[in-house]
Amino acid sequence: MKTLLPDNHFWHDSLILSVSINTEADKIEMLVLLPDEAGSEQTIAFKNAYGYKEFEGPFQGSPVILSVSAAEQNEQWSKVTIETNAGYRELFCSEISASGGAHNAG
User: Fold this and answer.
1) For residue 11, which of 24, 29, 83, 87 sits 20 to 30 Å off, Cα-Cα?
2) In the chain, domain spans
3) CA-to-CA distance for 61 and 81, rounded, in angstroms?
4) Most distant CA atoms of the chain, gap in Å
């Protein structure tokens, strides 16, 4: 399986500021605040995406990403799980764009 995700260090301790879903383009965009970039905001785009769900309890403030993992589902989509300090989020996608590069699932 090819790596779908950027290095886990990229995600760790990033604050999730907002999530937008573009159903027409099958794209989910997550605006995060990176801890190592002196307050730098980064948009992570999940392309050819569907099934975004949040499994988080009540939480005050922005959730922090603890880890991200991807499991191969078939030739096109991978299930991405984002663990946060408020619970977890999951979605299916075929590509993630972040830090100036695209990472393909297959």
Assistant:
1) 24
2) 8-104
3) 21
4) 38
Distance CA 65, CA 53 (A): 15
Q: What is the distance between the alpha carbons of residues 27 and 45, in angstroms, rounded to a whole number?
A: 7
- Per-residue confidence band for 5, with pLDDT thresholds at 50, 70 and 90: low
Phi, psi of 88 (to 5 degrees): -155, 165
| pTM exceeding the 0.90 threshold for the entire prediction | no
Predicted pLDDT at 36: 74
Is residue 65 within 8 Å of 88, Cβ to Cβ?
no
Q: Write the pLDDT tens digit of every residue in 15-25.
A: 999 999 999 99
